[in-house]
């Protein structure tokens, strides 16, 4: 079995690992479940040799029509988090590894949960909304400055750290434009991915789109937070995920193992 790994990422290329330092599930004690999404379950874990707490995302290695679909999403997330590492606004990546069942991403544990949980637990006043949305905008700008479009900006993917600051996570369907082949007018991609309730018309209709799809999602979240309502035209879309076969990704990244 081969391992694609990075530990203590620096934001540059993924460093090679010596066999003795390859992380594995045995390094961690699972404490409880933090959340779950379409393809992954996230656990609170304690690293045994440091006693530090982390979030461990386990992504099932399943196949659709013989293709390892989850593979692409998890490598996407690993590459995007490594590229963006070092910013307080982006979820810090600590380690990645896999076994026969799952891929694992170990990230910093953010005890504030996500913005959706926060919205459910209390009514946010205008000042709180202004604060969270301003920080979210900075996070989105940082992502775009690295030629990456997130494509799944939504409250469940916006985490809150120990000090109450916004941290953007879940880069499983992010897309990185190729610096060499894209012209200033050529930053376009397509693919019906993401969460329909937060998706722009271009995404929903399968047309070309660029960075602005993240700003559309930002607008939907702002509306929801200020009004306390879900957009009526989105109610029927809210729980309908796009088909997983349509997942695109960061070009040039392949998964082994
Ligand atoms: N680092 C973290 N600290 C605290 N809670 C987290 C952390 N990472 C994830 N969670 C919780 O787990 C939930 C799911 O995480 P995430 O969005 O990364 O995965 P996902 O939606 O299952 O991924 P995918 O869309 O790739 O299937 C989050 O909404 C959040 O509540
Ligand atoms: Mg998510």
TrEMBL record:
Annotated ATP binding sites: 57
Protein name (record): non-specific serine/threonine protein kinase
A GO term, aspect molecular function: protein serine/threonine kinase activity
Positions of the Protein kinase domain: 28-257
Gene3D superfamilies assigned: Phosphorylase Kinase, domain 1, Transferase(Phosphotransferase) domain 1
InterPro entries: Kinase-like_dom_sf, Prot_kinase_dom, Protein_kinase_ATP_BS, Ser/Thr_kinase_AS, Ser_Thr_kinase_AGC
Catalyses which reaction(s): L-threonyl-[protein] + ATP = O-phospho-L-threonyl-[protein] + ADP + H(+); L-seryl-[protein] + ATP = O-phospho-L-seryl-[protein] + ADP + H(+)
Enzyme Commission number(s): 2.7.11.1
Keyword Transferase recorded: yes
Domain of life: Eukaryota
Keywords, ordered alphabetically: ATP-binding, Kinase, Nucleotide-binding, Serine/threonine-protein kinase, Transferase
Family stated for the protein in its record: Belongs to the protein kinase superfamily.
